[in-house]
Amino acid sequence: MIQIRDLHKHFGDLHVLKGINLDVNKGEVLSIIGSSGSGKSTLLYCINGLETIQQGTVHINGTDVHAKNTDINKLRQKLGMVFQQWNSFPHLTTLENVALAPRIVKGKSKEEALELAAKQLKHVGLGDKLKNYPVSLSGGQQQRLAIARALAMEPEYMLFDEATSALDPEKVGEVLDTMRLLAEEGMTMICVTHEMSFAREVSDRVAYFHEGIMEEIGPPQQVFEDAQSEHTRKFLMNVR
Amino acid sequence: MFDYSFHWRPVVKSLPELIQAGLVTLEIASLAMLLGVVIGLCLALMRMNMKGPLKWFAVTWIEIARNTPALFQLFFFGFGLGAFGINLSPFTIILTGLSFNCAGYLAENFRGGFQAIPVMQINSARCLGMNSWQAYTRIVIPQVLRIVYYPITNQMVWAVLMSSLGMLIGFRELSGETQFFASKTFRVFEYFAAAAVIYYVIVKIVLGASRLLAMRLFRY
Questions:
Q1: Minimal Cα–Cα distance from B68 to chain A, Å?
Q2: Does residue B75 belong to any structural domain of this protein?
Q3: How far is A224 from A237, CA to CA, in rounded Å?
Q4: What ipTM, to 2 d.p.?
Q5: Tell me, what CATH number does B99's domain have?
Q6: To which H or E segment does residue B34 belong?
Q7: Average pLDDT over residues B94-107
Q8: Strand order in the sheet with A157-161
Q9: Which of B119, B124, B217 would you mutate first to test chain A, the one with the most A CBs within 10 A?
């Protein structure tokens, strides 16, 4: 499980996260909503160690992410991450994009890695694009490629940082469907998202962030129908 | 009036020597580029990622290589070091000088290439558990090589032509050889005209080869 205790993050004078406490259990789908600049994405970056933190702790299965003696590369294999911009590796085919990390990070044989990659690509519906270069794929396909690439490392957790925000509107559905599929398979997921219907239908819990503070967390029903905080109600009214 | 009569026969007779010297030119340019690419890559990385003496070493190298005449650089490795009792062979002097110069120019090409790679490419690689060495060698550098490929080709052409400076330190590459025959026979125009054609052919071959290599290397 992921345990976050009293997490503070500063960018210079800017206090981006102001004491976050959060537990995410195995098998849970947590959606994080909130306006831009509320610290949602920064939280994900602190969870996988892409950003340093100034105070508090983040533990993944009991391992302190930000401790000096933690092997962060090893730890990150447990944490799949999908970004807003899909960041395909343009010089590799989709198959190579997915097979690379299992081969060089996990030390799988080439055949094993390629087989695994093909399986993951079929899983996200790209089975007919194995030999394509990313440049010939649409945004939605590239985002699904990014998901397959993360899954090929067989992570225990998946972090989604506004995975659909940069997509053309008609491509959003295919990526959300893939995320839904993962959730149904029991993947533990933290999804920073602006897709309220996804947050509502797929998540076990929804957290609302406001100016670096987690103002509200609970089952979707509760957050969407019966928000306790004034800010949450205002935000939900505006996005509807 | 114009009373110079052309005599091409001596040129034709010494053509094998000239072509041989042309191969020496190609060899020098290729070796200098090979060293230049490796050193230039290191200089660019040092300039971008290091602090203190290593960074200033790289910056100084690049500044001198780019902002002073290549001929002076060659003279430094020849007569300059010679004055301190370090006597290098003409081959070593031209190779060192050319490599020094190319590395400086290529370092800046590489720096531009690195800056064109979005930092999110590295973040994505790191998120897959790659360490920074793996992220650089597997993700960043292949893309950088693609970006700097044509500037490198350009530099290679430049290296072929610049190796003619070898003539001035007594090295018998194509220009040195041409000079040798020209002063022996006094057919200066004819020899240098022939050498110009050989240079042209060498550059054409280099460009053709690089285009073929690009077709093989870059599939996207």
A1: 37
A2: yes
A3: 10
A4: 0.90
A5: 1.10.3720.10
A6: helix B15-49
A7: 96
A8: A79-82, A157-161, A188-192, A29-34, A205-210, A213-218
A9: B124
